[in-house]
Amino acid sequence: MKRHQIRPRPVGGLAPSKTAPFLAGLLVAAVALAACTEADPTPTPIATSTPAATPGLPASGLLDIAGVVEQVAPSVVSVVTTVEQRDIFGRVRTGTSSGSGVIFDARGYILTNNHVVEDGTEVAIVFADDPGRAWPVEVVGTDPLTDLAVLLLDPAQLPYELVTSPLRDAGDVRVGEWVIAIGNPLGPDFAGTVTVGVVSGTGRFLDVGGETVLHDLIQTDAVINPGNSGGPLLNLQGEVIGINTAVIRGRLAGGQEAEGIGFAVSTSTAIPVAEQLIANGEVIWPGLGIRVQDVTLSMAIEDGLASNRGVLVVSTAPGGPAEKAGVQASDVIVAMDDTPVEDVTGLQRLFRTQYSIGDSVDVEVLRNGERLVIVVTLERLSR
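User: That's the sequence. What structure does it adopt?
Assistant: Structure tokens below.
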């Protein structure tokens, strides 16, 4: 095995590639980030109470969907964002957009999507059972690369008890597992809407346009409509395992209609992102300075790879750590310090759990049929 080592001059990282094989060349469908924009509704809010129902699977073995909903629904809120837009005459118009969020911490922290609150001048929340009032919240921090945001509500201002729902790491979620989505499709008028489905896939990634490719997504056939963005995807124990974020609608390249393809950001990603946003107001992770995507089966066959495991380097940041060290576009990363790398989600997990800014890492890549080990010093990932 060849060992290629050049001391890098660190420059920030890059986001994952926006070329996502799940969609590229396959879809002529619309990818909808499920925030709902309204003409000019007046923001209004919430009320909560703690139910006594026991969720999940009772002794009878029957699904207790109602028990889960009774437990979790009081923690799900409408997120109403005030936005300013200019019309064709240059006049500033004020309107609102709405999405969903879930209170996950007794201090008043709320998890939602970045696209629900971005570009907002003010943000408030509305509780489903107290729709006559809107409560102002602070935007603690946002992370566009994972489409997540954390808001903060002051519990002391509420005339009722704050109900929270726990975040549970979704690393062991299984395909076929029952899940429940709660949110506010089409705005606060339909607050607390419940849909049920199963986990259709895990570890998905999705190009949502611009510079953003979302990774570590849970795919579900539970109906997700505009306004559901930021709401929780739950297991049968009432634990949050994902934050609903996007849905594919429209026609595939072959002309078929796409139905029942919704996505939630896994809590395996959401938990560390929320922790960083609360601690720092931003996400600070080490990175290589590369744009990446999963190696697909078609790529593996085309390039003569032994399997479709690994991460394809789409491009490197000019002057970044990977480029300075000798990593090249079209390299396939297969290991970091002898730890196998099977996909982008696995690579991201390594960065979050095992590495810090300034660490030197042996990056094993496949290039033109050869295996190379390239030493790269990790830098702060550019968000």
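The chain has three domains: 2-19+284-380, 27-33+166-280, 37-157.
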